[in-house]
């Protein structure tokens, strides 16, 4: 097969390129509006104005008050702040936490730490499509439950969770409810009041903004103890000199993506379905993992049986195509995805699964290029693995050398 070297990026769930308009806004903030927002002079006032206008932009995007937005360094900090901060705020009420088996490590690791410290944790299962049953949440609640944390959408198979229903249950029992929306912010509609969430995490680098910036929505009246202390920025909720350039980038990207929200996401969804159909129609022994419709618009997750996922990633990279063998946290590992295992997929198939995630800059021409070379790559890898599994003395039964 002849190699045509291109640069096609199909790993948008890991990170996204910064949009040119966003990069310009960030550059301006770094070189023109570089003041410290805590200072009263004109440079500080300009920075403060950018800070508060950005807060308004993010608040409007998720239908909350600007005072309920706290800027952070990204999704991981937002998740940690939501979990540790809530536990410190409500630990006198109880010591029980409810989460799912498929949460991002930024949620699972803090909860594991709390579990090791004596907190009681219920990990609710998911169905074969990676979706939580709200009834399992209800059944898990005790009089000591103080926090429920369920992701808005899964980072591996893109499964959209029934957050609104879970939020109603949490509200019924007066339990603080957190949702990690890092993957779904700007890819699906998010209204924190409709979803009944008390805490919601977002991140910049998943939406064409810079890395190192994010936000945590904290509903008014929710007790969240600060996790970073110092100068008292963000009204004492998160100390540290504000990252004005990153915050402006997050707000600018939000503005751009909101301007053509439905059209953009429908285009990505159509391209995703075109990719899905092309793979399933042209390659044998393939599984399409996750719910067929209740998923992020750009997410495809395939199991190509009898091939290690990292082999597929490596071969496609030789042809200039970037995809993932799993989450960005695990893609360099041969470990099976915990999400796929929780969905009931066997370890062998889970290790044969790749994630292809589309973004706004992808084209049908790029997908055609992928669909043109992928079948031959899969056939080649399966042939190689078949050969490797045959004992040397038995090879002449199958091949003539």
Show the helix and strand layout.
Elements: E1 8-9, H1 20-31, H2 42-62, E2 69-72, H3 75-90, E3 96-100, H4 105-116, E4 120-124, H5 134-140, E5 145-149, H6 163-172, E6 176-180, H7 192-195, E7 199-203, E8 214-218, H8 244-259, H9 261-282, E9 286-288, E10 299-304, H10 309-318, E11 321-322, H11 338-342, H12 347-350, E12 353-357, H13 364-388
Parallel strand pairs: 1-11, 3-4, 3-5, 5-6, 6-7
Antiparallel strand pairs: 2-8, 7-8, 9-10, 10-12
Helix pairs in contact: 1-8, 2-8, 3-4, 5-6, 9-13, 10-13
Comma- or semicolon-separated keywords:
disordered C terminus; Aspartate Aminotransferase, domain 2; alpha/beta; single chain; 41% helix; globular; Aspartate Aminotransferase, domain 1; 401 residues; 2 domains
Fold and architecture overview:
Helix 4 (105-116) links the parallel strand 3 (96-100) and strand 4 (120-124). This protein is of the alpha/beta class. The protein is globular, with a radius of gyration of 23 Å. The chain contains 13 helices and twelve strands. Residues 328-333 and 395-401 have low confidence and may be disordered. The longest helix is centred in the last third of the chain and has 25 residues, at 364-388. Helix 5 (134-140) packs parallel to helix 6 (163-172). The chain has two domains: 8-16 and 261-386, Aspartate Aminotransferase, domain 1 (Alpha-Beta Complex); 20-259, Aspartate Aminotransferase, domain 2, CATH 3.40.640.10.
Short characterization:
Helices cover 41% and strands 13% of the residues.
